[in-house]
Amino acid sequence: MNFQRTIGPCGLLLAGIGSVIGSGWLFGPLYTAQIAGPAAVISWIIGGILMIIIALTFAELGSAFPVAGGMIQFAQYSHGPLISFLIGWMVWVSSLAIAPVETLGLIQYISNYAPGLVTSKHVLTLWGIVAASGVMFIMCLLNFYGAQFFARSNIFITGIKLIVPIATAVCLISISFHSANFIATQSGGFLPYGWHSVFAALPLGGVIYSLIGSNTVLQLAGETKNPKRNIPLALIGSMLLCTLLYALLQIAFIGAMSPNAIANGWSKIHYAGDNGPFAGIMAALGFSWFIIIIYADAIISPFGTGFIFTASTARVGYGLSQIGFMPASFGTLSQRGVPFRYILINFFLGLLLFLPFPAWQKLAGFIISCFIFSYIIGPIALIALRKIKPDVPRPFLLPYANFMSLLAFYICNLLIFWTGWNTVSKMMIALSIGLVFFVFYCFREKKSFKKECISALWAIPYCVALSIISYLSTFNGGKNIIPFGIDFIVVGIMTIIIFYLIIRLSKARVLL
Fold it and tell me: pTM value?
């Protein structure tokens, strides 16, 4: 049985928007302001621009190869089984974690009325884990009804997810807006912690996590009508709209803060109800009626994003089965065209993530690094597939492809680098585990992939170089050896060397 192409342009666009607007709007503005102060607004704008540039490479790939589990398939076409497995592994690991992290956001807000669910350090209690497991089970249950039910229900959910954040921002700007907060000298002015903090806020403040979800458009590509038009529209459109919304929310949050609350600096922001920062502000302003709306959306927004990723993550697993890396029996579709076995597998594996990463901010940082690593396939596959499959029609043709792909690859490397050594080291461990599974797969199938692996030889020097640079960086556990500013140049040199190595190896793959 094949997937049913029942998702229209509106449904796909809303899937992209719905996967981006989740718990990020509830927590991101607070964490980003704590790191960068008023300059957090710049962090959101920079993050949006960077993610749009990366999305442009996927827009061409998605329009040319509209298949389920798109990112894995792109890697398979362009660089063979090793890279496709590693990309698929990282997409699966990171996507698998989205439903749990969104559930954490939901439970964290609910804990204001049910304190027994979360500790004072925002960590789930035993009852919190039970409640979170129940929420994830409902996400899975609803996904069994197929793509058409998914598209229709997501329109309703995403509509609410858009209305409430917009209304929150407008309400705060209209009722309580202290423009002096953006330049207040007692809290350090507009840029209290320097430009380093602006870039550090991208991964650590939840900016990239909040903007990263649009790849669900690619995972659902096999179920959309007219994918050659709808995929670029949904990818770029969702990123533009969500970037504007998050920047507006950040402006509203900074302006709504009481001058007394920031007197000791933005990093010391604290007030009653900070399990839900926007609800805390509304409570301080006396708008108890609006708190009810925020708490309702604090359930709907994370639930909606987790619901979408439950669907897309199952398609990632299906893609792995299609190219032979997972048992074919796992990729069986139900009568409604749903990879139901992967929904169940992902559910049980997702529950395990509540144990090592029990808090929203801790889990979000790990997801970012894994997701961005998988995003490198966009720029490198675009160039490779133009050489390997030049005759495939490309309804969306990215102009200045070589330059844009190099720029997108550089952006991916910077975003990984900015997560810091503590996170990059965990990501490399996850990659190593994936490599072990790949070796086991090769042994099991008794196949030689010498030809296909030639185009994947760049992966070893790339991972080694990225690890060393992160270890020597000034970000999140680095040794502070490479100064901020110089690191842009160092990452740029590494990017150019690896990128042109990838191109040369891709040419070798064509000749073979």
Answer: 0.79
